[in-house]
Amino acid sequence: MTGAVLKPGTVADVQDAIRDAVMDRVPLAIEGGGGLSGLGRPMQTERTLKLDGLTGVVEYSPSELYATFRAGETLVDARAALAEKRQRLPFNPPDLTGLYGDAGGPATMGGVVAAALSGPSRVAVGAARDYVVGVGLVDGQGQALKGGGRVMKNVTGYDLCKLTTGAFGTLGAITDATFKVLPFANSEVTILAHGLDDAAAQAMMSAAFKSPFEPVGAAHLPASAAAAIGGAGGAGAITALRFEGFPDSLVYRTNAIRSFLPAGLELTELEAEPSAVFWEAVRDVAPFQAPDSRALWRISTAPTQGPKLVAEIAQSLEVDAFYDWAGGLIWLAVAVDAPNVGAEVIRPLITAQGGHGTLMRADQSVRAAVEVFEPLSAPLLQLTHGLKRTFDPFNALNAGRMYAAV
Protein backbone atom coordinates (compact mmCIF):
# COMPACT_ATOMS: atom_id res chain seq x y z
CA MET A 1 0.00 0.00 0.00
CA THR A 2 1.69 3.18 -1.18
CA GLY A 3 0.94 6.74 -2.18
CA ALA A 4 -0.82 9.68 -0.56
CA VAL A 5 -2.51 9.35 2.81
CA LEU A 6 -5.77 11.29 3.13
CA LYS A 7 -7.13 12.10 6.61
CA PRO A 8 -10.67 13.48 6.35
CA GLY A 9 -12.15 15.37 9.27
CA THR A 10 -15.79 15.29 8.15
CA VAL A 11 -18.16 13.09 6.18
CA ALA A 12 -18.03 15.65 3.38
CA ASP A 13 -14.25 15.22 3.25
CA VAL A 14 -14.74 11.46 2.90
CA GLN A 15 -17.18 12.03 0.03
CA ASP A 16 -14.75 14.35 -1.73
CA ALA A 17 -11.85 11.90 -1.35
CA ILE A 18 -13.84 9.04 -2.85
CA ARG A 19 -15.21 11.15 -5.69
CA ASP A 20 -11.70 12.36 -6.53
CA ALA A 21 -10.39 8.78 -6.54
CA VAL A 22 -13.17 7.68 -8.88
CA MET A 23 -12.62 10.65 -11.18
CA ASP A 24 -8.89 10.00 -11.30
CA ARG A 25 -9.38 6.23 -11.65
CA VAL A 26 -7.12 5.74 -8.62
CA PRO A 27 -7.69 2.73 -6.31
CA LEU A 28 -8.29 3.75 -2.72
CA ALA A 29 -7.46 1.85 0.46
CA ILE A 30 -9.75 2.49 3.44
CA GLU A 31 -8.52 2.01 6.98
CA GLY A 32 -9.08 3.25 10.50
CA GLY A 33 -6.09 3.14 12.80
CA GLY A 34 -4.31 0.73 10.45
CA GLY A 35 -3.78 -1.94 13.11
CA LEU A 36 -5.49 -4.58 10.95
CA SER A 37 -3.63 -3.74 7.75
CA GLY A 38 -2.03 -7.19 7.86
CA LEU A 39 -5.43 -8.89 7.61
CA GLY A 40 -6.69 -9.63 4.13
CA ARG A 41 -5.26 -9.94 0.66
CA PRO A 42 -2.61 -7.33 -0.24
CA MET A 43 -3.98 -4.47 -2.31
CA GLN A 44 -2.33 -2.32 -4.98
CA THR A 45 -3.54 1.16 -4.11
CA GLU A 46 -2.27 4.66 -4.78
CA ARG A 47 -4.08 6.48 -1.99
CA THR A 48 -5.08 5.58 1.56
CA LEU A 49 -8.16 7.05 3.19
CA LYS A 50 -7.51 6.98 6.94
CA LEU A 51 -10.63 7.50 9.02
CA ASP A 52 -8.95 7.79 12.41
CA GLY A 53 -9.64 11.55 12.34
CA LEU A 54 -13.38 10.93 12.59
CA THR A 55 -13.48 10.60 16.37
CA GLY A 56 -15.95 11.12 19.18
CA VAL A 57 -19.30 10.01 20.52
CA VAL A 58 -22.09 11.24 18.26
CA GLU A 59 -24.93 10.27 20.58
CA TYR A 60 -25.28 8.14 23.69
CA SER A 61 -28.48 7.30 25.54
CA PRO A 62 -27.82 5.08 28.57
CA SER A 63 -31.55 4.83 29.28
CA GLU A 64 -32.36 3.75 25.71
CA LEU A 65 -29.31 1.45 25.57
CA TYR A 66 -27.67 2.71 22.41
CA ALA A 67 -24.51 4.61 21.51
CA THR A 68 -23.30 6.08 18.22
CA PHE A 69 -19.56 6.42 17.65
CA ARG A 70 -17.66 7.95 14.77
CA ALA A 71 -15.63 5.43 12.82
CA GLY A 72 -12.24 6.60 14.09
CA GLU A 73 -13.16 6.52 17.76
CA THR A 74 -10.81 4.05 19.40
CA LEU A 75 -12.19 0.91 20.97
CA VAL A 76 -10.45 1.85 24.21
CA ASP A 77 -12.14 5.26 24.35
CA ALA A 78 -15.53 3.85 23.36
CA ARG A 79 -15.33 1.28 26.14
CA ALA A 80 -14.34 4.01 28.61
CA ALA A 81 -17.29 6.19 27.60
CA LEU A 82 -19.70 3.31 28.18
CA ALA A 83 -18.01 2.26 31.42
CA GLU A 84 -18.74 5.68 32.95
CA LYS A 85 -22.40 4.61 32.90
CA ARG A 86 -21.54 0.99 33.78
CA GLN A 87 -22.48 -0.20 30.30
CA ARG A 88 -20.67 -2.21 27.65
CA LEU A 89 -20.72 -3.64 24.15
CA PRO A 90 -22.33 -7.05 24.84
CA PHE A 91 -20.42 -8.92 22.11
CA ASN A 92 -17.13 -7.87 23.77
CA PRO A 93 -15.13 -7.09 20.59
CA PRO A 94 -11.47 -8.10 20.64
CA ASP A 95 -8.55 -5.81 19.96
CA LEU A 96 -6.55 -7.86 17.46
CA THR A 97 -3.95 -5.20 16.69
CA GLY A 98 -1.50 -7.04 18.97
CA LEU A 99 -1.35 -9.86 16.43
CA TYR A 100 0.40 -7.53 13.99
CA GLY A 101 2.96 -5.84 16.22
CA ASP A 102 3.58 -2.17 15.55
CA ALA A 103 2.08 -2.22 12.06
CA GLY A 104 -0.54 0.42 12.79
CA GLY A 105 -2.51 2.38 15.32
CA PRO A 106 -5.20 1.39 17.83
CA ALA A 107 -8.38 -0.53 17.14
CA THR A 108 -11.29 1.68 16.06
CA MET A 109 -15.05 1.32 16.13
CA GLY A 110 -15.19 1.42 12.34
CA GLY A 111 -12.73 -1.48 12.32
CA VAL A 112 -14.90 -3.41 14.76
CA VAL A 113 -17.78 -3.17 12.29
CA ALA A 114 -15.75 -3.65 9.11
CA ALA A 115 -14.11 -6.82 10.45
CA ALA A 116 -17.18 -8.03 12.41
CA LEU A 117 -15.13 -8.61 15.55
CA SER A 118 -16.79 -10.64 18.32
CA GLY A 119 -15.20 -11.78 21.57
CA PRO A 120 -15.76 -14.68 24.00
CA SER A 121 -19.29 -13.49 24.86
CA ARG A 122 -20.42 -14.29 21.32
CA VAL A 123 -21.27 -17.86 22.33
CA ALA A 124 -23.86 -16.58 24.85
CA VAL A 125 -25.18 -13.26 23.53
CA GLY A 126 -24.59 -13.20 19.77
CA ALA A 127 -22.22 -11.62 17.28
CA ALA A 128 -21.21 -8.09 16.37
CA ARG A 129 -23.67 -8.11 13.49
CA ASP A 130 -26.52 -8.58 16.00
CA TYR A 131 -25.65 -5.37 17.86
CA VAL A 132 -24.91 -2.94 15.02
CA VAL A 133 -28.30 -1.21 14.68
CA GLY A 134 -27.27 1.79 12.59
CA VAL A 135 -24.48 2.73 10.22
CA GLY A 136 -23.30 5.73 8.22
CA LEU A 137 -21.51 4.86 4.98
CA VAL A 138 -20.04 6.64 1.99
CA ASP A 139 -20.30 4.37 -1.03
CA GLY A 140 -18.05 4.03 -4.06
CA GLN A 141 -19.70 6.97 -5.81
CA GLY A 142 -19.23 9.34 -2.89
CA GLN A 143 -22.84 9.14 -1.75
CA ALA A 144 -23.51 9.37 2.00
CA LEU A 145 -25.89 6.59 3.05
CA LYS A 146 -27.65 5.88 6.34
CA GLY A 147 -29.04 2.51 7.40
CA GLY A 148 -30.86 1.32 10.49
CA GLY A 149 -31.43 3.65 13.42
CA ARG A 150 -30.96 3.85 17.14
CA VAL A 151 -32.89 0.79 18.25
CA MET A 152 -33.83 -2.57 16.75
CA LYS A 153 -37.41 -1.53 15.90
CA ASN A 154 -36.08 1.01 13.37
CA VAL A 155 -35.82 -1.63 10.65
CA THR A 156 -35.60 0.73 7.66
CA GLY A 157 -32.18 0.22 6.15
CA TYR A 158 -31.25 -2.37 8.76
CA ASP A 159 -30.04 -4.66 5.97
CA LEU A 160 -27.32 -2.08 5.24
CA CYS A 161 -25.95 -2.68 8.75
CA LYS A 162 -25.85 -6.41 8.10
CA LEU A 163 -24.10 -6.01 4.75
CA THR A 164 -21.52 -3.52 6.01
CA THR A 165 -20.57 -5.53 9.09
CA GLY A 166 -17.79 -7.84 7.96
CA ALA A 167 -17.39 -6.31 4.46
CA PHE A 168 -13.87 -4.98 5.23
CA GLY A 169 -14.54 -1.66 3.55
CA THR A 170 -15.26 -3.17 0.14
CA LEU A 171 -18.77 -1.66 -0.02
CA GLY A 172 -18.01 1.78 1.38
CA ALA A 173 -16.24 3.85 4.00
CA ILE A 174 -17.93 3.58 7.40
CA THR A 175 -18.27 7.04 8.96
CA ASP A 176 -20.22 6.14 12.11
CA ALA A 177 -21.99 3.21 13.71
CA THR A 178 -24.73 2.80 16.32
CA PHE A 179 -24.60 -0.11 18.74
CA LYS A 180 -27.05 -1.63 21.14
CA VAL A 181 -25.38 -1.60 24.57
CA LEU A 182 -26.17 -3.34 27.85
CA PRO A 183 -25.30 -2.84 31.54
CA PHE A 184 -22.22 -4.35 33.14
CA ALA A 185 -22.76 -7.61 34.95
CA ASN A 186 -22.91 -7.12 38.71
CA SER A 187 -19.97 -9.51 39.15
CA GLU A 188 -18.29 -12.49 37.55
CA VAL A 189 -16.53 -15.73 38.46
CA THR A 190 -14.53 -18.13 36.31
CA ILE A 191 -14.20 -21.82 37.10
CA LEU A 192 -10.95 -23.37 35.89
CA ALA A 193 -10.40 -27.06 35.30
CA HIS A 194 -6.75 -28.11 35.10
CA GLY A 195 -4.95 -30.69 33.01
CA LEU A 196 -7.64 -31.77 30.53
CA ASP A 197 -6.80 -32.81 27.00
CA ASP A 198 -8.71 -31.20 24.13
CA ALA A 199 -11.42 -33.85 23.86
CA ALA A 200 -12.10 -33.96 27.60
CA ALA A 201 -12.19 -30.17 27.73
CA GLN A 202 -14.71 -30.03 24.93
CA ALA A 203 -16.91 -32.55 26.76
CA MET A 204 -16.73 -30.37 29.87
CA MET A 205 -17.68 -27.20 27.98
CA SER A 206 -20.59 -28.96 26.27
CA ALA A 207 -21.85 -30.27 29.60
CA ALA A 208 -21.73 -26.75 31.05
CA PHE A 209 -23.78 -25.27 28.23
CA LYS A 210 -26.34 -28.07 28.50
CA SER A 211 -26.84 -27.18 32.15
CA PRO A 212 -29.40 -24.61 33.36
CA PHE A 213 -26.72 -22.48 34.99
CA GLU A 214 -25.99 -20.14 32.08
CA PRO A 215 -22.25 -19.79 31.56
CA VAL A 216 -21.46 -16.79 29.36
CA GLY A 217 -18.08 -17.98 28.10
CA ALA A 218 -16.04 -21.14 27.73
CA ALA A 219 -12.49 -21.61 26.48
CA HIS A 220 -9.80 -24.29 26.51
CA LEU A 221 -6.11 -23.45 26.50
CA PRO A 222 -3.62 -26.30 26.09
CA ALA A 223 -0.48 -25.98 28.18
CA SER A 224 1.50 -23.76 25.80
CA ALA A 225 -1.34 -21.26 25.37
CA ALA A 226 -2.12 -21.27 29.10
CA ALA A 227 1.52 -20.54 29.90
CA ALA A 228 1.50 -17.59 27.49
CA ILE A 229 -1.45 -16.02 29.30
CA GLY A 230 -0.25 -16.79 32.83
CA GLY A 231 -1.96 -15.60 35.99
CA ALA A 232 -4.44 -18.47 36.13
CA GLY A 233 -2.49 -20.54 38.64
CA GLY A 234 -0.77 -23.88 38.20
CA ALA A 235 0.80 -25.36 35.11
CA GLY A 236 -0.63 -27.34 32.23
CA ALA A 237 -3.84 -27.00 30.27
CA ILE A 238 -6.72 -24.82 31.49
CA THR A 239 -10.41 -25.12 30.66
CA ALA A 240 -12.41 -22.05 31.71
CA LEU A 241 -16.12 -21.41 32.31
CA ARG A 242 -17.25 -17.83 32.89
CA PHE A 243 -20.34 -16.87 34.90
CA GLU A 244 -21.89 -13.44 35.46
CA GLY A 245 -24.62 -12.13 37.74
CA PHE A 246 -25.39 -11.16 41.32
CA PRO A 247 -23.11 -12.62 44.03
CA ASP A 248 -25.73 -14.95 45.53
CA SER A 249 -26.61 -16.25 42.08
CA LEU A 250 -22.95 -16.83 41.26
CA VAL A 251 -22.36 -18.80 44.46
CA TYR A 252 -25.35 -21.02 43.72
CA ARG A 253 -24.60 -21.55 40.03
CA THR A 254 -20.87 -22.17 40.37
CA ASN A 255 -21.53 -24.73 43.10
CA ALA A 256 -24.45 -26.40 41.34
CA ILE A 257 -22.75 -26.75 37.97
CA ARG A 258 -20.13 -29.05 39.43
CA SER A 259 -22.67 -31.87 39.36
CA PHE A 260 -22.92 -31.43 35.56
CA LEU A 261 -19.17 -31.69 35.02
CA PRO A 262 -17.12 -34.88 34.73
CA ALA A 263 -16.13 -36.36 38.08
CA GLY A 264 -12.60 -36.03 39.46
CA LEU A 265 -11.72 -32.66 37.93
CA GLU A 266 -9.20 -30.40 39.63
CA LEU A 267 -11.14 -27.12 39.88
CA THR A 268 -10.17 -23.64 41.03
CA GLU A 269 -11.91 -20.27 40.76
CA LEU A 270 -11.00 -16.77 39.63
CA GLU A 271 -12.91 -13.93 41.28
CA ALA A 272 -14.08 -10.79 39.51
CA GLU A 273 -10.88 -8.87 38.69
CA PRO A 274 -8.57 -11.78 37.82
CA SER A 275 -11.45 -13.36 35.91
CA ALA A 276 -11.84 -10.23 33.77
CA VAL A 277 -8.09 -10.08 33.12
CA PHE A 278 -8.05 -13.73 32.05
CA TRP A 279 -10.89 -13.26 29.57
CA GLU A 280 -9.33 -10.11 28.14
CA ALA A 281 -6.26 -12.21 27.29
CA VAL A 282 -8.43 -14.87 25.64
CA ARG A 283 -10.43 -12.19 23.80
CA ASP A 284 -7.36 -10.47 22.37
CA VAL A 285 -5.60 -13.75 21.46
CA ALA A 286 -2.71 -13.05 23.82
CA PRO A 287 -1.01 -16.46 23.31
CA PHE A 288 -0.30 -15.66 19.65
CA GLN A 289 0.40 -11.93 19.73
CA ALA A 290 3.60 -10.46 18.29
CA PRO A 291 6.51 -11.13 18.42
CA ASP A 292 5.06 -14.55 17.55
CA SER A 293 5.72 -14.68 13.79
CA ARG A 294 3.82 -17.85 12.95
CA ALA A 295 0.96 -17.83 10.50
CA LEU A 296 -2.37 -17.70 12.29
CA TRP A 297 -5.71 -19.19 11.30
CA ARG A 298 -9.12 -18.42 12.78
CA ILE A 299 -11.41 -21.43 12.30
CA SER A 300 -15.11 -21.70 13.06
CA THR A 301 -16.63 -25.16 13.31
CA ALA A 302 -19.14 -27.15 15.30
CA PRO A 303 -17.82 -27.18 18.89
CA THR A 304 -17.93 -30.97 19.10
CA GLN A 305 -15.69 -31.23 16.01
CA GLY A 306 -12.93 -28.87 17.16
CA PRO A 307 -10.55 -31.32 18.87
CA LYS A 308 -10.88 -33.83 16.04
CA LEU A 309 -10.17 -31.13 13.45
CA VAL A 310 -7.05 -29.89 15.26
CA ALA A 311 -5.81 -33.46 15.71
CA GLU A 312 -6.21 -34.17 11.99
CA ILE A 313 -4.37 -30.97 11.05
CA ALA A 314 -1.58 -31.83 13.52
CA GLN A 315 -0.95 -35.11 11.71
CA SER A 316 0.52 -33.10 8.81
CA LEU A 317 1.56 -29.76 10.31
CA GLU A 318 3.35 -28.40 13.37
CA VAL A 319 0.62 -26.38 15.11
CA ASP A 320 -0.45 -24.81 18.39
CA ALA A 321 -4.09 -24.06 19.09
CA PHE A 322 -6.57 -22.87 21.66
CA TYR A 323 -10.36 -22.90 21.70
CA ASP A 324 -12.94 -20.20 22.43
CA TRP A 325 -16.75 -20.11 22.06
CA ALA A 326 -17.06 -23.45 23.89
CA GLY A 327 -14.87 -25.01 21.20
CA GLY A 328 -16.56 -23.43 18.18
CA LEU A 329 -13.71 -20.99 17.54
CA ILE A 330 -10.17 -22.28 17.06
CA TRP A 331 -7.09 -20.08 16.95
CA LEU A 332 -4.43 -22.13 15.16
CA ALA A 333 -0.78 -21.09 14.81
CA VAL A 334 1.21 -22.83 12.07
CA ALA A 335 4.99 -23.02 11.73
CA VAL A 336 6.24 -20.41 9.26
CA ASP A 337 8.04 -22.99 7.14
CA ALA A 338 4.84 -24.90 6.31
CA PRO A 339 4.21 -24.71 2.55
CA ASN A 340 1.54 -22.06 1.89
CA VAL A 341 1.07 -21.91 5.70
CA GLY A 342 -0.69 -25.27 5.51
CA ALA A 343 -3.62 -24.11 3.40
CA GLU A 344 -3.66 -27.28 1.29
CA VAL A 345 -4.09 -29.32 4.48
CA ILE A 346 -6.26 -27.01 6.54
CA ARG A 347 -8.92 -25.87 4.07
CA PRO A 348 -10.06 -29.36 2.91
CA LEU A 349 -10.29 -30.53 6.52
CA ILE A 350 -12.33 -27.47 7.49
CA THR A 351 -14.65 -28.05 4.53
CA ALA A 352 -15.11 -31.69 5.50
CA GLN A 353 -16.20 -30.57 8.99
CA GLY A 354 -18.62 -27.98 7.61
CA GLY A 355 -16.71 -25.03 9.05
CA HIS A 356 -14.89 -22.02 7.62
CA GLY A 357 -11.50 -20.45 8.15
CA THR A 358 -9.70 -17.13 7.77
CA LEU A 359 -5.94 -16.72 7.43
CA MET A 360 -5.55 -13.95 10.01
CA ARG A 361 -1.79 -13.46 9.76
CA ALA A 362 0.84 -14.38 7.18
CA ASP A 363 3.51 -12.74 5.05
CA GLN A 364 2.21 -10.55 2.26
CA SER A 365 3.53 -12.90 -0.42
CA VAL A 366 1.56 -15.77 1.13
CA ARG A 367 -1.63 -13.71 1.37
CA ALA A 368 -1.29 -12.90 -2.31
CA ALA A 369 -1.10 -16.58 -3.24
CA VAL A 370 -3.47 -18.22 -0.72
CA GLU A 371 -7.18 -17.59 -0.19
CA VAL A 372 -7.31 -15.49 2.98
CA PHE A 373 -11.07 -15.74 3.50
CA GLU A 374 -13.20 -18.82 3.07
CA PRO A 375 -13.60 -19.49 -0.68
CA LEU A 376 -17.13 -18.78 -1.90
CA SER A 377 -19.33 -21.08 -3.91
CA ALA A 378 -20.16 -19.88 -7.43
CA PRO A 379 -23.64 -18.56 -6.49
CA LEU A 380 -22.30 -16.70 -3.44
CA LEU A 381 -19.41 -15.26 -5.44
CA GLN A 382 -21.85 -14.03 -8.09
CA LEU A 383 -23.98 -12.42 -5.39
CA THR A 384 -20.90 -10.82 -3.85
CA HIS A 385 -19.84 -9.38 -7.20
CA GLY A 386 -23.36 -7.99 -7.63
CA LEU A 387 -23.26 -6.24 -4.27
CA LYS A 388 -19.83 -4.82 -5.05
CA ARG A 389 -21.07 -3.41 -8.37
CA THR A 390 -24.09 -1.87 -6.65
CA PHE A 391 -22.18 -0.10 -3.89
CA ASP A 392 -18.85 0.45 -5.65
CA PRO A 393 -19.42 0.32 -9.42
CA PHE A 394 -15.93 1.64 -10.23
CA ASN A 395 -14.20 -0.90 -7.96
CA ALA A 396 -12.44 1.93 -6.17
CA LEU A 397 -12.66 0.86 -2.52
CA ASN A 398 -10.43 -1.81 -0.93
CA ALA A 399 -10.52 -3.70 -4.20
CA GLY A 400 -9.28 -7.25 -3.79
CA ARG A 401 -8.90 -7.18 -0.02
CA MET A 402 -11.34 -10.06 0.49
CA TYR A 403 -11.50 -11.75 -2.91
CA ALA A 404 -9.95 -11.03 -6.30
CA ALA A 405 -11.89 -8.31 -8.17
CA VAL A 406 -14.19 -7.72 -5.19
Explain this structure.
There is one protein chain. By secondary structure, the protein is of the alpha+beta class. It is globular and about 70 Å long. The mean pLDDT is 93. Strand 4 (57-61) and strand 5 (66-70) form a beta hairpin. The protein has helices spanning 11-23, 75-83, 109-114, 122-125, 158-164, 198-210, 223-229, 247-256, 272-283, 306-314, 343-353, 364-369, 378-391; strands spanning 4-6, 28-31, 47-50, 57-61, 66-70, 87-88, 132-138, 144-148, 173-180, 182-183, 187-194, 217-221, 238-245, 266-270, 295-300, 319-324, 329-334, 356-361. It is built from 13 helices and 18 strands. Strands 4-5-9-7-8 form a five-stranded antiparallel β-sheet. 30% of the residues lie in helices and 23% in strands. It folds into three domains: 1-184 and 376-406, 2-Layer Sandwich (Uridine Diphospho-n-acetylenolpyruvylglucosamine Reductase, domain 3); 187-283, Alpha-Beta Plaits (2-Layer Sandwich), CATH 3.30.70.2190; 289-369, Alpha-Beta Plaits (2-Layer Sandwich).
Question: What does the secondary structure layout of this molecule look like, with pairings?
Answer:
Layout: E1 4-6, H1 11-23, E2 28-31, E3 47-50, E4 57-61, E5 66-70, H2 75-83, E6 87-88, H3 109-114, H4 122-125, E7 132-138, E8 144-148, H5 158-164, E9 173-180, E10 182-183, E11 187-194, H6 198-210, E12 217-221, H7 223-229, E13 238-245, H8 247-256, E14 266-270, H9 272-283, E15 295-300, H10 306-314, E16 319-324, E17 329-334, H11 343-353, E18 356-361, H12 364-369, H13 378-391
Parallel strand pairs: 1-3, 2-3
Antiparallel strand pairs: 4-5, 5-9, 6-10, 7-8, 7-9, 11-13, 11-14, 12-13, 15-17, 15-18, 16-17
